[in-house]
Amino acid sequence: MDVHVYPSKAAMGAAAAAQAAGLIREAIAARGAANVIAATGASQFEFLDALTSIPGIDWPRTVFFHLDEYVGLPSSHPASFRRYLKERIVDRVHPGDFHLIGGEAADPRAECARVGAIVARHPIDVAFVGIGENGHLAFNDPPADFDTESPYLVVELDDDCRRQQLGEGWFARLEDVPRRAISMSVRQILKSREILCVVPDARKARAVRECLEGAVSPRHPASVLQQHPRTTVFLDSPAAALLERGGSGVNP
After folding, report:
1. Rounded to two decimals, what is the model's pTM?
2. What is the 3-state secondary structure (H, E, C) of the chain?
3. Tens of pLDDT along 172-186?
4. Domain around 201
5. What is the CATH number of the domain that holds 71?
């Protein structure tokens, strides 16, 4: 795992976007297409803004999947990840395909099977992920399931996760935050050839320390990234503030 620390969110996002663009181009050159997993949330704003502004990416030859979606939340809701991805990726660069999770599906487990069958046919070249305030990876809250081979699963969101969504301004009241979601599984994320983990803000500092410098444990779901041979973590200085070892590629 390579860890890089930057003085600002803008610098962090630009560096992560440059690496992501290179990986997408390499996959297209080698295999004719790039299969990409996209994360959502406030932590990805600067990164996605920078990535979608980089010229020379053959976006029609990309296929996107997304990590998670709330169960039962309309796509018109400001917190809908389908809406987020449409506004920040689809409408900006028009990828060849984007397999969105149907959070309003009548049978969420059937929806897991549907999108899981599609991702199984598309080996992932690069996954964009973050780390939650509770250490979650996608919506795999602690204690996360490190064993299931199902590509997607229905999960219960813990109160720390739901409070994070409230604190980021996606919902007006805690009771408005859904209690269930469809999430890509930990093992499916780890199947990606490359993982880029983008984590800004001081509110993530404790989780960053626990997941990057602590033991690998379902209690700290993103700690599993330590076991992936090609994971690169991009932090801003506030997110890295509690790290003892610092970044392996610290930028001034």
Report:
1. 0.94
2. CEEEEECCHHHHHHHHHHHHHHHHHHHHHHHCCEEEEECCCHHHHHHHHHHCCCCCCCHHHEEEEECEEECCCCCCCCCCHHHHHHHHHHHHHCCCEEECCCCCCCCHHHHHHHHHHHHHCCCCCEEEECCCCCCCECCECCCCCCCCCCCEEEEECCHHHHHHHHHCCCCCCHHHCCCEEEEECHHHHHCCCEEEEEECCHHHHHHHHHHHHCCCECCEHHHHHHHCCCEEEEEECCCCCCCCCCCCCCCC
3. 999 999 999 999 999
4. 2-236
5. 3.40.50.1360
